[in-house]
From TrEMBL:
Gene3D superfamilies found in the cross-reference section: 3.30.420.40
Keywords linked to the UniProt accession: Acyltransferase, Cytoplasm, Iron, Metal-binding, Transferase, tRNA processing
Domain Gcp-like: 27-315
Function statement: Required for the formation of a threonylcarbamoyl group on adenosine at position 37 (t(6)A37) in tRNAs that read codons beginning with adenine. Is involved in the transfer of the threonylcarbamoyl moiety of threonylcarbamoyl-AMP (TC-AMP) to the N6 group of A37, together with TsaE and TsaB. TsaD likely plays a direct catalytic role in this reaction.
Organism per entry: Allokutzneria multivorans
Primary location class: cytoplasm
Cofactor: Fe(2+)
UniProt-recorded name of the protein: tRNA N6-adenosine threonylcarbamoyltransferase
Length: 341
């Protein structure tokens, strides 16, 4: 079965195509992404209107490239999947409208799917079907969640989430404080490798006895970095950028991995998936590997290209949904900016 997936929930226009075998394994036939990130750089974050317009411009060419890469015509595809939410309203609408047009024009069934479940499904492209139960840590510019996955198409339960900023958002905001470019993850990650992660004791949000064990908070950490920088600048001394980056990064990786491991233990789970743009972070990967090995947990992290927003993950989830026997979405399918899992 061949499924084409369309993703437009944020600033990436993605079209992916997968072939699913009866045993649930996937073959990636195409994964084309056009990003409008450059257009958002001078604003220091994604501007919804700009993202929507960029999707409108990129949609048809990205679709063409994906079909050409796969060596297919749309008529060879069995179903079309599209991100129905969560995400930016206007951005989602462009993808859904395009998907409806392609589905109607080709007579193929259309399946609206959840973006967050798509991030988890991305891993099945790389590592095959998931075990019956696993834990997913989703960390990107828009989300920071701990999900209990009991069947990708059956039951995904959110057991924790950020109460303020997403992990990637914290990276982007701290980068701005340090005068580094947007998006902030890659430059901070690079700088941190030359710094001392124990130089500054930044706070670990929501790790107190009475705090929600699986929720995250990164806004206090960002403020702590801003205060530390302000104080240090007042002394006239040069900022130890690498040490700040390393200490901030350590605080983020420490909290994310500690909470994820604790959640896995409490739910008796032995497989963890980490996905989303921040999954590309070198220290998060290192600490997760270390702590998962200690706890006897199998760690699955898809390659960075599949961790960030893309159409292949939507095609992958769509293929699993079609295989589950679910009905296609109605013609009234609409964007839902906070689509539940
Ligand atoms: O998944 P993604 O491409 O888009 C969504 O937000 O959905 O994630 C982008 C986020 C940005 O906030 C970026 O700063 C962060 O992922 N990021 C990283 C790294 N690479 C990207 N954060 C930490 N370390 C990295 N190496
Ligand atoms: Zn995403």
């Amino acid at each position: 079965m061949i499924v084409l997936g369309i993703e437009t929930s944020c600033d990436e226009t993605g079209v992916g195509i997968v072939r699913r075998a009866a045993d649930g394994t996937l073959e990636l036939l195409a994964d084309e992404v056009a990003s409008s990130v450059e257009e958002h750089v001078r604003f220091g974050g994604v501007v919804p209107e700009i993202a929507s317009r960029a999707h409108l411009q990129a949609m048809a060419p990205t679709m063409r490239r994906a079909l050409d890469t796969a060596g297919l015509e749309l008529s060879a595809v069995d179903a079309i999947a599209v991100t129905a939410g969560p995400g930016l309203s206007g951005a989602l609408m462009v993808g859904i409208a395009a998907a409806k047009a392609y589905a109607t024009g080709s007579g193929k069934p259309l399946y609206g799917v959840n973006h967050l479940a798509g991030h988890v499904a991305a891993d099945t492209i790389e590592h095959g079907p998931l075990p019956p139960r696993c834990l997913a840590l989703l960390v990107s510019g828009g989300h920071s969640q701990l999900l209990l996955v009991e069947g990708l198409t059956e039951k995904i339960t959110e057991i924790g989430a950020t109460i303020d900023d997403a992990a990637g958002e914290a990276y982007d905001k701290v980068a701005r404080i340090l005068g580094l470019p947007y998006p902030g993850g890659p430059p901070i990650d690079k700088l941190a490798r030359q710094g001392n992660p124990r130089a500054i004791a930044f706070p670990r949000g929501l790790t107190g006895q009475r705090d929600a064990p699986f929720d995250f908070s990164f806004s206090g950490l960002k403020t702590a970095v801003a205060r530390w920088v302000e104080k240090h600048e007042a002394t006239g001394a040069e900022l130890p950028l690498a040490d700040i980056a390393a200490s901030f990064q350590e605080a983020v990786a420490d909290v994310l991995t500690a909470k994820a491991i604790r959640a896995a233990r409490e739910h008796g789970i032995d497989t963890m998936v980490i996905s989303g743009g921040v999954a590309a972070n070198s220290r998060l990967g290192e600490l997760a590997r270390e702590r998962c090995a200690e706890a006897g947990i199998t760690l699955r992290v898809p390659r960075p290209r599949l961790c960030t927003d893309n159409g292949a993950m939507i095609a992958a989830l769509g293929a699993h949904v079609v295989a589950s026997g679910a009905k296609p979405s109605p013609a009234t399918l609409a964007a839902d900016t906070s689509l539940p899992l």
